[in-house]
């Protein structure tokens, strides 16, 4: 049994190795991983991106979309930021929903060494989530968030405005 299987195992090993070594181009998900960040920070299926030597990246999605985590995240058509180990600074194009409102995420960082937590800086406050929920890239459903925010803030009036002022 073992002898019959081993040629197959050998072939699989060879093909896996050659696939890895032949892909000189790294995916944006591999780049996140190499920087100590979870791949699920960006939605599934991204192939159009740029990264310069300073760590400045730009990601172009096919459409703006929402993905569900512990909170819902919204991704604009273009997402950009500065990538350093364990951190994305100067982030633009991602917002997080909280109490019906969308807050632009300015910075994302993880603890090094890892505490299993990831922090989203949305202004003066930072929200923490468990790192494991960002392990794999999620499906992202086409969506535009601006309209939702406008309608809800109109509906909830002062209460929402007060909340926004305390957070931003
Ligand atoms: C990548 O995105 C940019 C900006 O949206 C667009 O101009 C360009 O055509 C895209 N490239 C590919 C290969 O899809
Ligand atoms: C996205 O980026 C492309 C290329 O940089 C630019 O042409 C386009 O206007 C941007 N779109 C939005 C909605 O910002
Ligand atoms: C991001 O990087 C660019 C280019 O290196 C730099 O000009 C910019 O100030 C940086 N932004 C932040 C918020 O770090
Ligand atoms: C939300 O607001 C937009 C723009 O003001 C309006 O067109 C739309 O009908 C509103 N939707 C709801 C459900 O009220």
From TrEMBL:
Listed InterPro entries: At5g01610-like, DUF538
Signal sequence, start to end: 1-23
Superkingdom of this protein's organism: Eukaryota
Keywords: Signal
Annotated SUPFAM superfamilies: At5g01610-like
Name recorded for this polypeptide: Uncharacterized protein
Species per Swiss-Prot/TrEMBL record: Tagetes erecta (African marigold)
Lineage, uppermost ranks: Eukaryota, Viridiplantae, Streptophyta, Embryophyta, Tracheophyta
């Amino acid at each position: 049994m073992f002898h019959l299987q081993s040629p197959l195992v050998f072939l699989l090993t060879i093909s896996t190795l050659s696939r890895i070594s032949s892909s000189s181009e790294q995916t944006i998900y591999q780049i996140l991983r190499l920087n100590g960040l979870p791949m699920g920070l960006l939605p599934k299926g991204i192939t159009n991106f740029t990264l310069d030597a300073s760590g400045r990246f730009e990601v172009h999605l096919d459409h703006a979309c929402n993905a569900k985590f512990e909170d819902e995240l919204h991704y604009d058509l273009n997402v950009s930021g500065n990538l350093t180990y364990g951190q994305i600074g100067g982030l633009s194009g991602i917002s997080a929903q909280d109490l019906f409102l969308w807050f632009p995420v300015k910075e994302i960082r993880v603890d090094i060494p890892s505490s299993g937590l990831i922090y989203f800086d949305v202004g003066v406050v930072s929200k923490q989530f468990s790192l494991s929920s960002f392990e794999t890239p999620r499906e992202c459903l086409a969506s535009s968030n601006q309209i939702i925010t406008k309608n809800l803030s109109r509906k909830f009036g002062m209460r929402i405005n007060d909340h926004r002022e305390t957070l931003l």
